[in-house]
């Protein structure tokens, strides 16, 4: 265990259902680390163990050197946790909400006032200081909840599905905020099943399924390790037979597994090569006389990765559920 | 805001007792501040307090008018009649306040924990360093502060009985002590059910069933037991028998320890000469009727010292309140366990299906 967040052999059962099955995790300081997995994969259970809300049945986890089993109080002092579904107190103003949590952490009165102002500015709620919490929009409540995790200036943030229920603008704002927090030196663990979002945001990911980490590291590294194909989209100035000829030429190239023409005339390539290979393919296409307008990797590499990593063994999963 | 990873020594830390106590105090203060901000915001709290005092004052005035009409004729002196009115007023106010506490205390704590669960705020609280003990005590004290405010505000009205006489300040102090301990006891019951069940509605129902059980239910069982054993209060001698033998003869007084009306009857008995209605109730409950300091009555002795005869006063309500203190402590400990997310003991109603928060994600 060397990272600021690490877990070894975490196990958690609910009755006879194995939610986390010997999960290992190692998150270096300063990362925005994504936990990716389908519903029921064990993401929330893992985060709740790290947040000291659940005691693991096996294994242990450490946050900033403090064990969640032996030293949960110290863990609580170095982390901020935002659960998947959270509520807000009625009859409470925005500043009172943060003041309450700051009191819970024993922050002195003199420091609280300034800190609340700073945090509200950070999450862009300075104008809502005296508004009632229940009157805020969902996105604002989400940002306020994120602000509450920061009152004690923790080193690690655990955010469970922070973007769920947010509109696109609020998602973008949240993403910017998380980047800002990373710049402030926070290590952020974020779980989500909205993969393109994680891909844009995270420096590393762990793909979890059935309570185990299936792949772990930077997206590009995982891709390289698993040799999973990327999708390239190419637009050429060609129509009719010329377009078909261009597709056939691409299909005949090394590392290209498949080539199709989409409805808008774009050629989509299933590509197994790395960045070097894709640069060589582009150069070859131009040398071949194809007039290339755009040549780009399709977004959602993580989605592809995720599908590749979690797709097999459906039969085994069905079997294990039946056994549980 | 910059984050510096804190290095923490491995192993379970040993906290100094004083530091731990200070942390609990800080936690209680944080929870209390939050709760009281919500409860006391705006005019609502003061409107309720005013209505409470107006109703209590109106009730007191009506009781005084009633007693003035019914007391007086046939009694020896005007002083005696005034004292009689004072006593009757004291009884009426004390019993009404006890009833109010009985309803308000569990109602004010019924949602303490369950509302946090319903609103999904308990997890936010549980991941702060604030201890479960601080959460539970902070919730209990802040909920009871409201009840105590109502009790405290009623003291001037109760003090009206002094203008009539028949009741001493020590009687009022005893009566209010019973009120306060009863409030803590029933508040703890409310808190426990709030921590035990998920829904505030269910906690409220359980509270009122328990309240009816320990008051009306226990009294009914006591009377039933008395009738079935053919027990009658027999004045004269202190009995030398085992507890089990006594159960064959009569119901145990402990059956009514949690009924605050019986404890208040003992307080009221303190204003009687030892032979009044309320002393009679306490005599029947304690089986110590007409025992003079546990010695047999000697024929031919006059009533030189009033307490030498009649019921042994001021002995039942302290036992009743001691029972409430023990029950409150046990319920607080159990509530702390139920609130702790990583508790070791498993309490709670059996569930067929786990709730969303406890299911794998």
How would you summarize what this structure contains?
Chain A has helices spanning 43-50, 72-78, 94-104, 109-122, 138-148, 168-183, 195-201, 219-226, 240-251, 275-287, 301-310, 314-323; strands at 5-14, 17-27, 32-36, 58-63, 66-67, 79-82, 156-160, 187-192, 204-209, 212-217, 230-236, 256-261, 267-271, 292-297.
Explain what this protein looks like in three dimensions:
The complex is a heterodimer of chains A (324) and B (361). By secondary structure, chain A is α/β, with parallel strands linked by helices. Chain A is built from twelve helices and 14 strands. A six-stranded mixed beta sheet of chain A has the order 6-7-8-3-9-10, sandwiched between helices. Chain A has a four-stranded antiparallel beta sheet with strand order 2-1-4-5, covered by helices on one side. Chain A has a four-stranded antiparallel beta sheet with strand order 12-13-11-14, covered by helices on one side. In chain A, helix 3 packs across helix 4 and helix 8 (219-226) crosses helix 11 (301-310). The longest helix of chain A has 16 residues, at 168-183. The radius of gyration of chain A is 23 Å and the shape is globular. Residues 1-11, 291-308 and 352-361 of chain B have low confidence and may be disordered. Chain B has 361 residues and is mostly helical. Chain B has 13 helices and no strands. Chain B is globular. Chain B has helices spanning 17-39, 44-70, 78-109, 114-118, 122-126, 132-153, 155-158, 169-196, 200-229, 243-249, 260-269, 277-286, 316-339. Chain B is 63% helix and 0% strand. The chains are: A alpha/beta (324), B mainly alpha (361).
